[in-house]
Amino acid sequence: MPRFIVFSFLLIITGCGFNNNDSVNNLRHPPSMYAIIDKQKYSLETGSFSWEMKNGGTTKAIQTDAPSPNQIAKKLDPIKVEDNSDIEFTADYNPEIVVYLWDEEKRMEEIPLKNNQIQAPDKGKVIYEVIGEWPNGEAHYTFVVEVK
Questions:
Q1: Across 60-85, average pLDDT
Q2: Could you tell me which residues come within 8 angstroms of residue 125 by beta carbon, excluding any fewer than 6 positions away?
């Protein structure tokens, strides 16, 4: 009987610790964002973000700045895609996602999402900005596609 009590106590302590570590509130920065194209997963380049971390009764806020997506895109290798390929976005903790199309100078337009997916263009090289929003912050990501 004493072993059962000790085992139960350890199970409760470790179980509580794992639940807290799995919370988006315990992250020090936003999760990574990915694009899935033709069953292949690509990591998107993280740009600026704002994030709050809760620690007991206190909250720490982080605000970063980064170059604009068109500037970030200059150092990225484009992801080669077939025309009109589906591009799905995914990140931990199910953020709200918004996608924008960029040209060489500025943000052009919002790209409508359907089931966290967009379609690649039918030709050319395209810069995308993806914004993920979680309960404790948001982050901007950049990636470039080029139709084969």
A1: 96
A2: 78, 144, 145, 146, 147
Please check whether residue 73 is in contact with residue 63, taking contact to mean a CB–CB distance below 8 angstroms: no
Whether residue 141 has pLDDT greater than 90: yes
Is the distance from CB of 132 to CB of 35 less than 8 angstroms? Answer: no
Q: Which residues contact 9 (CB under 8 A, 6 or more apart)?
A: none
Q: Are 127 and 70 in contact (CB under 8 A)?
A: yes
Distances (CA, A) of 81 to 29, 69, 97: 30, 20, 21
Mean of the pLDDT values across residues 70-84?
Answer: 96
Q: Locate 39 and state its tokens.
A: 């069953």
Q: Are 45 and 127 in contact (CB under 8 A)?
A: no
pTM of the shown model: 0.82
Q: Which residue, 86, 81, 88, 77, is CA-closest to 45? A: 77
The pLDDT assigned to 126 comes to 96
